Amino acid sequence: MMDVLARDIIHNDSLAIIPQPSSVQLRKGLPPFRMDKNLKIILWGENSRLEDLANRFSLQLKEYVGVAPPVIPMRNYDRERQVIVLSLSAEKDFDSEAYSLEINRQQIIVRASAAAGVFYALQTLLQLLPPREVGIAPRKSFLLPSCRIDDRPRFVWRGFMLDVARYFMPVSLVKRYLDFLAMHKINTFHWHLNDDQGWRIEIKKYPRLTSFGAWRKDSQLELSGKQMAFSPHGGYYTQEEIKDVLQYASERFITVIPEVEMPGHSYAALAAYPELSCTGKPREVSTRWKVHDDIYCAGNEKTYKFLEDVLTEIVALFPAPYIHLGGDEAPKIRWKNCPKCQAKISEESLKNEHELQTYLLKRMEIFLASKNKKLIAWDEITEGGLSPDATVMCWRGFDGAITAARQGHDAIIAHSKYTYLDHYQSEPYLEPLAWAGLVSGGYTTLQKSYSLEPIPVQLNRAEEKHIIGLQAQLWTEYIRSTDHMDYMTFPRLSALSEVMWTAKETKDWNYFKWKMETQYKRLEQREIKFSKSAYNVYFNVAMDSLNRTALISLSTDSFDPSIYYTLDGSEPTPNSKPYIAPFQVDMPVTVKAATFKNAIRISKVNQKTIMTTQY
Ligand code: ACM
Ligand code: ZN
Q1: Is 308 a catalytic residue?
Q2: How many CA atoms lie within 13 A of 454 on its CB side?
Q3: Which CATH number does the domain housing residue 588 bear?
């Protein structure tokens, strides 16, 4: 149950906006704005992006009010009522993503300094409309509360990474996710385009990358000695398809960052071009989920030529200022035993194989710089000395971010314990098979994701500025369907979007949980098969071994849940004991608990046997 204080924070008329804006002032008592088929969209400011986004917004509104509201330039506007005014002006001291949204009886006024700000205002506006219920005819007329919202993001880098190498995702699915990102005001899509198990982007100069490197015989999932084999798998994007995705992303103010993994996670490329490996041995695209010893040979000039050729095509396609070069999990065993790599180490007076990796990435950084692009890589690049302008994406904790920021490098927080969406989100035995890696423990609840504070306390004011944002990661080794992908991504991405956007002082876990009740309906409206694991019950047990009793508290990651429990081993029902407050039991005992809504169980049944000795 919620404590009384937390319940008081949330007023009946609070707005359920995710991510939470910087400031929301509700004008209680002032009449609302009526949105219906008479609505018009007025453009204030000549800007083709503004016009495009107004036209797309009009089509979105059609789903609500039944007709697409006309989009009218300001000069033809005759002080009408029931208008949304989209106004671009440079006078305001606005970042390009900031906006204000004012709603009164006659008008909705959006102000921003750039089209991106207007776009985010409209995402907020959509959240002021009630979620449309699936299968129920639209209402067509809505009252929006009189209010003023001022908003700007906390971080410039608000990212989502999708691994399409482990499983290929068609363009339609990528676009579906870009829509979800836009809805959450996430502005960066990091596309993990190649890995040991597949190469997914057409490179015209090296056709075998996709004719051979995009396909694998099967996919073997090894778990506790059990091995499951899945059928052949593959796929890739043509350059035309990539351009189509880039256009779609750009319309949603999303920057697409391609990742080209090097020197490790390159088994699929080495399968296509074995001469780029240290051993030169022929091989097939990997079917195993593991870190592979075979990586690009850094002693062979052919490798550098190949990587530069690939990057030349990548750079020509992607307009983003950054290219991600991977750099993670590259075992050095092949380099240790490779005469070419060893010769390169001595020629270049490098100390060891780590420095050889830095050498390779530095060369690529110089190459990228010649094309006006900056390098990003995973935090392993802090190990052999950072290349001069590299931005570090920190997945193994905060250390990489601290090192990077102190050396004046930008860093992006991708801390696995908070942002890896392939982790379990509640007790593993209640969940589908997920990643349970040792580094992370593989256990990331909704609350855990929400609790992320991306700026490490160790950094001073000047260093803090180098933490440019954070990112959620969807690795897909264990993800076998679109539904499962949705399940792993949501609701945790909703929580992380608030970490990305909302000021630290404005974030509020209890309020967020309350808002999620509305957000779940929005996710349903978009046919997102989100996880309901936030309703699963957690046990907190304080044992008194001497008296063989235990005090048990039950909680969930949902707002004010109705939890029912049993102590006799039976399944909880709405007729079981309601959980009101922590209770005492005699040991041994088995507690079973679940969350209900309208007398229907909405969680899994969680159970725990409590004995004097815990195993
Ligand atoms: C990673 O998880 N290897 C970045
Ligand atoms: Zn080598």
Answers
A1: no
A2: 34
A3: 2.60.40
